[in-house]
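Review form for a predicted model. The reviewer records the input and the model, then writes brief findings.
Reviewer: anonymous (R2)
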Amino acid sequence: MLEPADLDEVRKVFNFYDVKEDGGADVLYGEPIADINVLHGTLYAYFSQRKKEVTLERRHGEIALVVKNARADNLWINVALAVATLITTTLVGAMMYGVNIFQDPQLSYLGLPFSLAIMLVLGSHELGHYIVSRKNGIDATLPYFIPFPMPPIGTMGAVIRQKGPVPSRKALFDVGISGPLVGLTVAMIITAIGLMLPAPAIQAQPGDLTYFQIQTPALFDAIAGIVHPGLSMQSISPIAFAGWVGMLVTVLNMLPIGQLDGGHVARSILGRRSDILSKILPVVILFFGVYSTFVMGMPGEMWIFWGLLTYVMGSGEHPKPLDDTGNIGLLRATIAIIGFGLTILCFTPFPIA
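Model under review:
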């Protein structure tokens, strides 16, 4: 049961008239006396220190505040998914080096460098979010990798889950921009290393699972011009390809839409006006995908998919931070310009075919 000090804290934001115990949870019936966002943020911060979680529900036609013991994160899930992704990306990497993983499974270890490179690129992005979230007092999980045993990269990326409210616009900006900046920095380093390495001796041919035609963005080409002047790039090493993937991920994440990283950044700068972008940009992306695919005959299918996905993501209102006043300041605005500028340098209209 809740202690008197707990009830006193609840009374600050929730006027309750009845308290019941239901399945190990404390259920308080009443009415909020503060903005829902403030209520949740205040009580979440208080009860999370006591290893409890709080939710606002409607039960039997009444508003109920439910307080129950928080479930501890199972780190073994993170470990299991990371190991599974290590395996799937290693197998795909081995295929890029010309290994038939079904006939010569003992040679699959050759794909380990690609596996480590792609997991470092994707994992650093999410770790950037995680570290900055925890620094700002936002409860977040460690990254969950998503294995996918098929080319082109053997994974569907990585994610973290934020369980607490965002305290301010500045915190929202920091969390949103940190992942892309950290991930892109690592991707640039991986790209430079990969471009200094030889391409696989056994070249993939059209029709092979590991044969891809890619467009390289300006940032990729600039790095190539520095570390390997005169490189033809008819074929590149899988390590360089991992860096290229990191640049593509940056573009997709930095679109100022909904719950994407760019959406968080836009929300921190523009406030509720960012919701207008979240509704317009998906339509523009979808139109570009349809026009380029069916009129121009170009490989724009990816943009059709991303337009539909972001349309769903941007259909609702972006959750506001607890303190939704003020601005992010000149330094953060400058970082935002740099972030979106780097994103433009990572963009290509038709990344892969």
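Findings: Residues 4-69 form a domain with the Hypothetical Protein Ta0175; Chain: A, domain 2 fold (CATH 3.90.1070).
Further findings: The chain has a mean pLDDT of 89.
Recommendation: see findings above.
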